[in-house]
């Protein structure tokens, strides 16, 4: 394919299918601010925003409504509190009978060192910062990985049911539209290549800097996505992890994010990328070898199952 045509295709992926139900976590910051998901509303998708802050979520919903004329729906969800995740999933399941795409977009990055430096420069007392989840896990791992894992497993039966092909129509009727499966798209970053063990230091311990712990959580996100793809790919579930781009900055960078997120969640071609990793401009990318460790991915999945079993 001509390079220019390929560039245009990746910059403007096909429109999402009409009538789909889609969930986005953490959509009140970053992605919604650069209109990454406005195309979903423009094409009549039912969009749910699972967010911790209702105030910011409602502001984002109002902004999207101004852009598209369509209104997203808010459900409270604190990914750093597993019972909150359960309540969120229960509320959604009481309202919808289908789920086509789950964008695991929310994430936490605790800039502890940067905050300390700014406090010293400004000569004022440091504000207490949250560093652990309600259950005592490192905040970045708990919200970025364990919270999303729990949410995904709670919504997975509905996605499996949605992915099943409809009953065969009578011979005289028109064939149903082709099914490309339901999608789970998890946000990670290039930081995923900076650490090797995905389960180490999940409990909150100040033994490493926040950048290490963030990278640790992002490696776990990639491994979890690969394991989900391995376990449920035969049931029509497509799981893709991706680098989100720079969500709050210049238009070119914002377009990179839209391209990546929209292609992973809506492009029919992406249905064949189960378990893959996408980087900026919607390009497939071979991640660090640690992210391909199937044994570690399986152990991580089983460990997380144990953590959420008693919730």
From TrEMBL:
GO molecular function terms noted in the UniProt entry: oxidoreductase activity
Polar residues compositional bias, start-end: 179-191
Ribonucleoprotein keyword on record: no
Region (Disordered), start-end ranges: 162-204
Entries under Gene3D superfamilies matching the protein: NAD(P)-binding Rossmann-like Domain
PANTHER family, A to Z: RETINOL DEHYDROGENASE, WW DOMAIN-CONTAINING OXIDOREDUCTASE
Keywords of the record: NADP, Oxidoreductase
Key word NADP present: yes
Domain of life assignment: Eukaryota
The protein's name: NAD(P)-binding protein
Pro residues: compositionally biased ranges: 164-178
Family in the record: Belongs to the short-chain dehydrogenases/reductases (SDR) family.
InterPro entries cross-referenced by the UniProt entry: NAD(P)-bd_dom_sf, SDR_fam
């Amino acid at each position: 394919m001509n390079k220019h045509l390929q560039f245009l295709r990746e910059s403007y992926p096909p429109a999402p299918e009409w009538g789909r139900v889609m969930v986005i976590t953490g959509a009140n910051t970053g992605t919604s601010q650069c209109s990454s998901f406005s195309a979903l509303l423009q094409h009549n998708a039912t969009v749910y925003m699972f967010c911790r802050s209702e105030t910011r979520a409602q502001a984002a919903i109002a902004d999207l409504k101004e852009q598209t004329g369509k209104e997203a729906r808010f459900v409270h969800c604190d990914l750093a509190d597993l019972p909150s995740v359960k309540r969120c999933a229960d509320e959604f399941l009481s309202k919808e009978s289908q789920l086509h795409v789950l964008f695991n977009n929310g994430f936490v990055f605790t800039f502890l060192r940067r905050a300390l430096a700014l406090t010293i420069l400004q000569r004022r007392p440091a504000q207490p910062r949250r560093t652990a989840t309600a259950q005592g896990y490192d905040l970045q791992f708990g919200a970025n990985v364990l919270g999303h894992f729990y949410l995904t497993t709670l919504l997975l039966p509905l996605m499996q049911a949605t992915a099943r092909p409809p009953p065969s129509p009578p011979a005289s009727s028109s064939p149903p539209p082709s099914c490309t499966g339901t999608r789970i798209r998890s946000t990670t970053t290039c930081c995923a290549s900076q650490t090797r063990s995905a389960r180490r230091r999940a409990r909150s311990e100040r033994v490493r800097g926040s950048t290490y712990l963030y990278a640790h959580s992002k490696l776990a996100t990639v491994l979890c996505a690969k394991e989900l793809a391995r376990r449920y790919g035969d049931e029509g579930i497509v799981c893709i992890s991706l680098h989100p781009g720079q969500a709050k900055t210049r238009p070119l960078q914002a377009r990179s994010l839209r391209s990546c997120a929209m292609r992973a969640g809506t492009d029919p071609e992406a249905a064949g990328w189960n378990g893959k990793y996408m980087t900026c401009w919607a390009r497939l990318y071979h991640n660090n070898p640690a992210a391909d460790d199937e044994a570690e991915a399986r152990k991580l999945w089983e460990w997380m199952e144990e953590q959420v079993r008693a919730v």
